[in-house]
Write a structure and sequence with these properties.
The complex is a heterodimer of chains A (118) and B (965). Chain A is of the alpha/beta class and 118 residues long. Chain A has one domain (6-105): 3-Layer(aba) Sandwich (Rossmann fold). Chain A has helices spanning 14-26, 38-47, 65-74, 105-117; strands at residues 6-10, 30-35, 52-56, 58-59, 62-63, 78-82, 98-100. In chain A, the strands form 2 sheets. Chain A has a 5-stranded parallel β-sheet, sandwiched between helices. Chain A has a two-stranded antiparallel ribbon with strand order 4-5. In chain A, helix 1 links the parallel strand 1 (6-10) and strand 2 (30-35). The model of chain A has no long low-confidence stretch (mean pLDDT 84). Chain B has 6 domains: 1-73 and 166-268, no CATH class; 91-164, Beta-Lactamase; 271-357, 2-Layer Sandwich (Beta-Lactamase); 366-474, PAS domain (Beta-Lactamase, 2-Layer Sandwich); 482-642, 2-Layer Sandwich (Beta-Lactamase); 824-959, 2-Layer Sandwich (Heat Shock Protein 90). Chain B starts with a helix and ends in a 6-residue tail after the last strand. In chain B, the strands form 7 sheets. A 5-stranded antiparallel β-sheet of chain B has the order 2-1-5-4-3, sandwiched between helices. In chain B, strands 7-6-10-9-8 form a 5-stranded antiparallel β-sheet, sandwiched between helices. Chain B has a 5-stranded antiparallel β-sheet with strand order 12-11-15-14-13. Chain B is α+β, with helices and mostly antiparallel strands. The chains are: A alpha/beta (118), B alpha+beta (965). Chain A binds chain B through residues 13, 15-16, 18-19, 22, 58, 82-88, 100-105, and chain B through 766, 769-774, 776-782, 784-785, 788, 805-806, 808-809, 812-813, 816, 819-820.
Chain lengths: 118, 965
C-alpha cells in the first residue's frame, strides 16, 4: 500500500467533500477531485486511473452509477457513501461496501485500507 | 155422459176367478171310454169269427187233399192204370189219355166230362199242365168245377184227374162269414147308438149354453155362460168368454175416463185449442178459443182463417194443409192487439190448432234480454273474471275479463274440465266444494297464470240443479313481483356483502334493518343500529352534524351525502364519505334507504398531491351512489351502474371459465375490446404482467379444489399499446339460494395513479431522509472542519469531536431504522442492535461485551426510538469510560420484560467492573438519560440509576406504543 495512493472522491456536497478530502489527506492519501458530477468524475478517470474511489450515490439529481460501472469495469476498488443508507445502493453494485451518511471518518479509512489491501 | 159411463163401468161384474169353476173330464177321455166299451168287444167278436172260419176251410182242404193223394197212390207198378179206391165221393176221378180220351174213372164223371176233356186236349192243349196242377172251368152241370191234373209216371201222357165242384170248397167259409157279419153289425150299431146318445147328452147341452152366451156377448150384453158343464173344453171356452167380456168392459170404462179427462184438459188449458176438418172449418173449439173470438161471434162451422184473418193463423193453416205434418208460427194480431203463437198439427182427420197469447211472455222475454245485456255489459267491465258454471260442469256464462285471464274464448256450453284448459280450476271447484283458493292455469297462449278464485253456489233453480258463480283474479303479477323483490333482496345482500364499503339499509323512518359485515369489521360494533349516521362510532365533533343531516334527509327524501369520521376497533379515527339514497316504489313512496360509507381517509391525506386520484375517487363516490341505486333497484339498473362505473365490473360463470358480463370500463383500462374478452376469457390472464402472473393465477383461480371464496389482489397489466397499469381486483362468489357457487363477480379498479402517488411518496420520504442524512453529514463535517481550523488541537477538543461524532452517528443510525419503516416507529430489539452496533465485536463472532437478553417484542413510536437510541449510546459510552467496560473482564447485560398495561421495563446491568460512583456533576449523558429520555418515552416513563458495589444498574420504564397493522 502506497502512501501516496490516489483516491478518487465523487461527492457533490461541498462540506462533506472537504471532510473527506481532509480525512484522506491526513491519512496520507492523495485525493483526485473531488468531483461533484458524473462528467467531472469521468474527466478525472480519463486522465488517470485511481487506486480507489469514494462514491456518493446521489449527485444532485443524477446518480453516480455510470462512474461505478466504469470503476468496476476498470477494476478500481471503491466504496459507496449514501444518504439512503443500505437501501439506496445501486442494484448492480450491491456487493460493494456501503457507508451510510454521516459516517465515522475512521471507519471510512479502515474500509478504504481494506479495499486497497485487496 | 161422464156419469153414465162411470156407472156402466161399475156394473160390470168382476170376472170369475179361474179355478173356482169345476171343469169336466176331457172329451178325449169320453172317447177312450167309448172305444173300450163298444169297439173293443166288436173287434174281438169279428176276430173270433174270422178265426173260426179260417179253421173250417183249412180242415176241409186238408181232407180234400188227402183224398187227391190217395187217388194218385193207386197206380200199380205193372203199368195198369187204375184209380185207387177213395173214402170220399166228393171227388170225381178219371184217367185221361193223351188225346183227351177218358179211359176210366167214375162213370158219371167220365160221361159228363168226356166232351170237356176232348175239347181241352184237342183245342186247348196249351192249357193242360204237363207237370200236373189245378184248373178251374165249367163243369158238366154248368157250374164251376176244379180239376186236379196229375201225370201218370212213365211219360205215357196219361193224367189222373180229380174234379170237384167249386161250391163244395166254398160252402163252409160262406157259412162263417154270414155269422160274422150279423154279429159285428149288431155290435157296431149298438156302439154307434151309444156314442150318439152319450155325445148328445154330455156335449150338446153345454155347447148350446155357451153358444147362447156368445151371442149375448156379441150383442154387448154381460152374458155369463153356465158353470161346470163337465166338459173341460166347454168350460175353458166359457171362462175365456167371461174374461173377454170383463176386459172389454174395463177398456170401455178407461176410454171414457180418458175422454173425460181430455175434455177437462181442453177446458182448463191456457191454450186455445181448435179442431178443424180437412177443409179448415172449425168443428170444435174449447172455452179459451171461444174467448179469443170477438163478442157474439160463434166459431163452430166457420173457417179458422176467417175468424182470425190478421194474425199468423191463415198462413199457418194454409201451410199445414199443403205440406202436412206440424208447423208453428208467431205473429201479432192487430185485431186482438196481442201476440199470438200458433201451432198446427195436420193428420188424417183434419187439423188441430193451438193458439197461445204470448204478448206478456214476449214482453218479459224482451225485458229479460235487455236485463241480460245490461248484466253482460256490467260483468264485462268488471276488473275480475266471472264464470257461471252449471251443475254439470258446463260453462253457462263468462265475462270478457275471464276469457282474457284464461287466454281463450269461453263459449257457453263448454265443459270446464275437458273442453278448456281449466282442469285445475275444475278440480279445485269439485274437490271439496272449496269456496276459494289459488290455482295455476296453463294458458293456451302466453304464460301460465296463477288465479285466485272465489266460488259461490247460486240458489237452486226450479230444476234443482245448483249452478256456481266463480270470480277469478290474476295473482301472477303479485306473485312475480314478490319473487322479483325476493330476488332483488338476495342480489342486494350478496353485492352488499361483497363490496369493500360499509353498506346499510334503513326503513323509511330511519331504523337500520341491515348493515354489511364491513361495519362490524371496522368498528368492532355489532349493533346494526350503530351504523346510522351519527351513531356512537361517529366522531363526537361530527356526530351532531351527521344526525341532523340524516334526519333532514329522512324528512325531505333528498339523498344524504356527508363525510364524517368513524372510530375503528383499535381506537383510530378514519374519514368516511357516506351517501344514502331512498328507494322508491313506482308511486314515489319511499320504501327503504340504502346507504354506503367509503373509507376516504387516505384520499383526504393525499388529496392535494394526488389530484388524479381524487378525481377517480370522486367518480368512485358517484359509482357508489350509482351502486346504491343499482342495489335498490333491479338488475337492469345494476347494469347501468356497471356501465357507468369507472371500475371494471365482471360476472363469470361458477367455474370462472366464461365471462357473462364485463363492464365498458374494461375497454378504457385494458385498452382492449370487451368482445375479445368475452370470446376469449384467457385474455384477462394473458394481459397480466408476466412477473405477477403466477401469483395472481393462484389468487384468482381459488387454488386447486378449494371452493372459490373470493380474492383481493393487486397486479400489473400490459395493455396492447404497451402501457403498464396497476390493477386492484376484488373477486367474490355469488351463491344461489342453496349456498352453492352460482357465479363469480368482481371489481377491477385502475390504481395506477394511486400506485404512482404511493411511489412518489416513498421517493419523497427517501429524498427527505437523504437530505436529513446529508445535513447531518454536513454538520459533522462542519464540526470537524471547525475544530481543524484551530491552531493547536487539544485533548478536550479531540474528546469533544469524538463524542459529538459518536452521538451524531447514533442519531443517524436511529434515523436509518425509522426511514426503513417510513417513520412509523421501530421494534425495540432493532433499536438496541443499532444503538450498540459500535460495540459489536469486529469479527462478529466473539462474545459481545454488552450482552443483550431479548425480551418480548415491543413497538416504539419514532420519538421513543430517537430518545432511546441516544440514551443507550450514552449508557454504553459511560460504561466504557467509567463503568464495568473499563476493565477487560467487565461486561454489561441489557434486557427487558413486559409489565402490565403495556408497560416495559428495560434494565442495564454492569458487572465485573470497579465499584461505581455517582457522577460528581451532571454531564450531557446523565442529563439526557434522567431528564431528556423520560420526556421522549412519553408520560409515566422513568429512568432510575442504582450504584451497587458490583456495578451500575439502570432501569428504564415506559409504555410501549401500538404497532400499525
Amino acid at each position: 500500500m502506497s502512501r501516496s495512493a490516489r483516491i478518487l472522491v465523487v461527492e457533490d456536497e461541498a462540506m462533506v467533500a472537504m471532510l473527506l478530502e481532509d480525512t484522506l489527506n491526513d491519512a496520507g492519501f492523495q485525493v483526485l477531485g473531488p468531483a461533484a458530477t458524473v462528467a467531472e468524475a469521468m474527466a478525472v478517470l480519463d486522465a488517470e486511473r485511481p487506486a480507489g474511489a469514494v462514491l456518493d450515490i446521489n449527485l444532485g439529481g443524477e446518480t453516480s452509477a455510470p462512474v461505478a460501472d466504469r470503476l468496476a469495469a476498470e477494476g478500481v476498488p471503491f466504496l459507496i457513501c449514501s444518504g439512503y443508507g443500505a437501501s439506496g445502493v445501486l442494484p448492480a453494485h450491491a456487493a460493494r461496501p456501503v457507508l451510510a451518511k454521516p459516517y465515522d471518518p475512521g471507519e471510512l479509512l479502515r474500509t478504504m485500507r481494506r479495499l486497497l489491501a485487496g | 155422459m161422464d156419469g153414465s159411463l162411470s156407472s156402466a163401468v161399475q156394473s160390470v161384474p168382476a170376472p170369475v176367478p179361474a179355478g173356482r169353476r169345476r171343469r169336466g173330464v176331457s172329451i178325449r177321455v169320453h172317447l177312450v171310454l167309448f172305444v173300450l166299451l163298444a169297439v173293443v168287444p166288436a173287434f174281438a167278436l169279428a176276430w173270433l169269427a174270422a178265426l173260426e172260419g179260417a179253421t173250417a176251410v183249412r180242415t176241409e182242404r186238408l181232407r180234400l187233399l188227402r183224398e187227391a193223394s190217395a187217388l194218385v197212390a193207386v197206380q200199380s207198378s205193372d203199368g195198369d192204370i187204375a184209380l185207387s179206391p177213395r173214402a170220399s165221393r166228393a171227388w170225381l176221378a178219371a184217367i185221361i189219355g193223351p188225346d183227351g180220351q177218358v179211359s176210366g174213372g167214375d162213370a158219371g164223371f167220365v160221361e159228363s166230362l168226356s166232351g170237356f176233356f176232348a175239347d181241352l186236349f184237342v183245342n186247348h192243349p196249351d192249357l193242360v199242365p204237363p207237370e200236373g196242377g189245378i184248373l178251374t172251368g165249367g163243369g158238366p152241370d154248368g157250374h164251376s168245377w176244379r180239376f186236379a191234373f196229375s201225370p201218370l209216371p212213365g211219360g205215357s201222357g196219361f193224367f189222373a184227374v180229380a174234379a170237384m165242384p167249386e161250391a163244395a170248397i166254398t160252402a163252409p167259409l160262406e157259412a162263417h162269414v154270414v155269422t160274422l157279419l150279423l154279429s159285428g153289425g149288431g155290435v157296431l150299431f149298438g156302439t154307434s147308438l151309444l156314442i150318439a146318445l152319450h155325445a148328445a147328452r154330455r156335449l150338446g147341452g153345454p155347447i148350446a149354453e155357451v153358444e147362447r152366451a156368445a151371442r149375448a156377448f156379441a150383442r154387448g150384453d154381460a152374458a155369463v155362460p153356465p158353470a161346470g158343464s163337465g166338459v173341460g173344453e166347454v168350460d175353458a171356452l166359457a171362462e175365456t168368454l167371461a174374461r173377454a167380456a170383463g176386459e172389454r168392459l174395463a177398456r170401455e170404462a178407461e176410454r171414457l175416463a180418458i175422454a173425460a179427462r181430455l175434455e177437462m184438459v181442453l177446458a182448463t188449458t191456457g191454450d186455445a185449442v181448435l179442431a178443424l176438418d180437412p177443409a179448415g172449418k172449425v168443428i170444435y173449439l174449447n172455452r179459451q178459443a171461444a174467448a179469443m173470438l170477438p163478442a157474439g161471434v160463434r166459431g163452430a162451422g166457420r173457417s179458422a182463417a176467417e175468424l182470425w184473418p190478421a194474425g199468423p193463423v191463415p198462413d199457418l193453416v194454409e201451410r199445414v194443409t199443403a205440406a202436412g205434418g206440424r208447423a208453428r208460427a208467431t205473429g201479432f194480431d192487430p185485431d186482438q192487439g196481442r201476440w199470438i203463437e200458433a201451432e198446427a198439427l195436420r193428420d188424417a182427420d183434419g187439423i188441430t190448432l193451438f193458439l197461445r197469447d204470448v204478448t206478456q211472455a214476449r214482453a218479459l222475454e224482451e225485458a229479460l234480454r235487455a236485463g241480460r245485456a245490461q248484466l253482460q255489459a256490467v260483468l264485462d267491465h268488471l276488473p275480475i273474471g266471472v264464470l257461471l258454471v252449471g251443475a254439470d260442469g258446463r260453462l253457462e256464462f263468462a265475462n270478457r275479463q275471464a276469457a282474457d285471464l284464461l287466454g281463450e274464448p269461453l263459449d257457453a256450453g263448454r265443459l270446464l274440465a275437458t273442453d278448456l284448459r281449466t282442469v285445475a280450476l275444475a278440480e279445485a271447484l269439485a274437490a271439496d266444494g272449496s269456496a276459494r283458493g289459488e290455482v295455476w292455469i296453463r294458458r293456451r297462449v302466453g304464460e301460465d297464470v296463477l288465479l285466485r278464485f272465489a266460488a259461490a253456489p247460486l240458489p237452486a233453480s226450479a230444476g234443482g240443479a245448483r249452478a256456481t258463480v266463480v270470480a277469478v283474479t290474476d295473482l301472477s303479477e303479485e306473485r312475480r313481483a314478490a319473487d322479483a323483490l325476493r330476488e332483488s333482496e338476495i342480489r342486494f345482500r350478496t353485492l352488499a356483502e361483497a363490496v369493500p364499503q360499509i353498506v346499510w339499509s334503513a326503513a323509511p323512518e330511519g331504523g337500520i334493518d341491515y348493515v354489511n359485515p364491513r361495519f362490524a369489521e371496522f368498528t368492532g360494533l355489532d349493533m346494526p343500529s350503530e351504523a346510522a349516521p351519527g351513531g356512537s362510532a361517529t366522531h363526537p365533533e361530527d356526530r351532531e352534524q351527521a344526525r341532523s343531516a340524516w334526519t333532514r334527509a329522512l324528512a325531505s327524501g333528498e339523498p344524504f351525502v356527508l363525510e364524517y369520521r368513524l372510530r375503528g376497533a383499535a381506537g383510530e379515527w378514519r374519514w368516511f364519505s357516506a351517501q344514502a339514497l331512498p328507494a322508491r316504489e313506482p308511486g314515489g313512496r319511499i320504501t327503504r334507504w340504502i346507504g354506503a360509507a367509503t373509507d376516504v381517509t387516505d384520499l383526504i391525506a393525499a388529496r392535494v398531491a394526488l389530484e388524479n386520484q381524487v378525481m377517480a375517487e370522486a367518480a368512485a363516490r358517484q359509482a357508489a351512489v350509482a351502486a346504491a341505486e343499482a342495489l335498490a333497484a333491479s338488475e337492469e339498473r345494476f347494469r347501468r351502474f356497471a356501465e357507468a362505473s369507472p371500475d371494471v365490473l365482471w360476472i363469470a360463470d361458477g367455474p370462472g371459465r366464461r365471462y357473462d358480463y364485463v363492464s365498458p370500463a374494461f375497454e378504457r383500462i385494458w385498452g382492449a375490446s370487451r368482445g375479445d374478452l368475452l370470446g376469449n376469457p384467457r385474455l384477462w390472464a394473458a394481459s397480466i404482467h408476466p412477473d405477477d402472473r403466477p401469483r395472481v393465477a393462484v389468487a384468482r383461480g381459488g387454488g386447486g379444489d378449494a371452493p372459490f371464496a373470493g380474492f383481493d389482489c393487486e397486479y400489473r397489466i400490459l395493455r396492447p399499446d404497451g402501457q403498464e397499469r396497476w390493477i386492484r381486483e376484488i373477486g367474490f362468489p355469488v351463491l344461489d339460494a342453496a349456498g352453492r357457487l352460482a357465479r363469480r363477480g368482481g371489481f377491477a379498479r385502475d390504481v395506477t395513479a394511486a400506485k404512482q402517488a404511493e411511489e412518489r411518496q416513498t421517493l419523497l420520504i427517501a429524498e427527505l431522509n437523504h437530505r436529513v442524512k446529508n445535513t447531518l453529514a454536513t454538520v459533522q463535517s462542519l464540526a470537524l472542519q471547525t475544530a481543524r481550523g484551530l491552531a493547536t488541537p487539544s485533548d478536550p477538543l479531540r474528546r469533544f469531536l469524538a463524542e459529538f461524532q459518536a452521538r451524531l452517528l447514533a442519531l443517524s443510525r436511529a434515523h436509518d431504522i425509522l426511514t426503513a419503516r417510513t417513520w412509523s416507529g421501530a421494534m425495540l430489539d432493532e433499536v438496541v442492535a443499532a444503538a450498540l452496533s459500535p460495540w459489536r465485536p469486529d469479527d462478529g463472532v466473539g462474545k459481545p461485551r454488552i450482552e443483550v437478553e431479548r425480551g418480548p417484542p415491543v413497538w416504539l413510536p419514532p420519538k421513543a426510538v430517537l430518545g432511546l437510541s441516544l440514551g443507550l449510546h450514552e449508557l454504553a459510552t459511560n460504561a466504557l469510560k467509567h463503568g464495568s467496560l473499563t476493565v477487560p473482564a467487565g461486561r454489561v447485560i441489557l434486557g427487558w420484560t413486559s409489565e402490565p398495561d403495556q408497560g416495559v421495563r428495560l434494565r442495564w446491568v454492569e458487572r465485573g467492573g470497579p465499584p461505581p460512583k455517582p457522577p460528581e456533576h451532571q454531564g450531557f449523558g446523565t442529563r439526557l438519560l434522567q431528564r431528556g429520555l423520560p420526556g421522549e418515552l412519553g408520560p409515566g416513563s422513568t429512568v432510575a440509576f442504582t450504584y451497587l458495589p458490583e456495578g451500575l444498574e439502570a432501569e428504564i420504564r415506559f409504555r410501549a406504543g401500538t404497532a400499525p397493522p
